[in-house]
Amino acid sequence: MREAQRTAPSIIYVPQIPLWWDTVGPTVKAVFTTLLQNIPTFAPVLLLATTDVKHGDLPEEIKALFNNDCEEVFKIRWPTCAERRSFFEDLVMKQAAEPPASKNSSARQPLEVLPVAPPPKPRQLSEEELKQLEEQEEDTLRELRIYLRDVTHRLVIDRRFRAFTKPVDPQEVPDYNAVIKQPMDLSTVLSKIDMHQYPTARDFLKDIDLICSNALEYNPAKDPGDRLLRHRACALRDTAYSIVREEMDEDFERRCQEIKESRKQRGSDCASSSFCEMPKEDSVPGCKKTDPKCNEKLKILAVPVDVSTPRPKGKLCFTQTFLEKVLKLLFL
């Protein structure tokens, strides 16, 4: 049953299901029924069973597997003598009486080139099936967002990458927006994670690449300060790629990519309409907007402390307690 789901689309064929059902024990029946019920309704797996007993005369357990009202039961009547004669007449009286085809290649007639049949249209999911599919997809993407927050948080607390944790101040660097057309930083990455704008880890790494390319473009290797910033930008990109490639399961990333393509085909937006908003500047009690200590506290609130990974046996490099200690050392 699991092999059928893994190699879908597939068919699970059970000939003479009443005889098989009477032969196996109750344990096999229970396992068979449980595995069958665990297959999602939208999965391309077909259970095909045959019997010479009418559907109404089958045991109740077998009848429960097939719904007669949903056209899951097909009745095939025995062919008549006239139908048998018409079927075999051409085969026996004509084709068998003809001489065998010549082995001479020159006598062979070229085969007709037929057009390629168009692919079948995908089955339209019902409203309930579509809702169940979207819930499963959202569960997967939620695990991805939790993991991406953890990766971004590791980069934020790394002292080497402090220059990339917040947007460039236009007052300090007036010509930055004129040179860099698409600014990016780690705080913006966190906001995009909260707004569900990363359906795959590959999309997340594209913005990490953008941070690095912006730093290399605006800071030519002319003086030691620029060279150091370029070195740290490249280290940021290599560190992010190393963490994701080492910890993320390839099957999980493939599943996220399939969800992205599926939603694109269905015409639904990958970003959910509801997302978690970051706290406002005046949301911390007893703090003023111009207070620098308050701003530091807001930075701490904006950094996620959850640690998770979508890999079943992933490496948890940090614990929540350790992260809290590091935050206190850095900001308090």
Automatic annotation (TrEMBL):
Residues 164-219 form the Bromo domain. GO terms for cellular component: nucleus. GO terms for molecular function: ATP binding; ATP hydrolysis activity; chromatin binding; histone binding. It comes from the Eukaryota. GO terms for biological process: nucleosome assembly; nucleosome disassembly; transcription initiation-coupled chromatin remodeling. The keyword Transferase does not apply. SUPFAM superfamilies: Bromodomain. This is ATAD2 protein. It comes from Spizella passerina. The gene is Atad2_1.
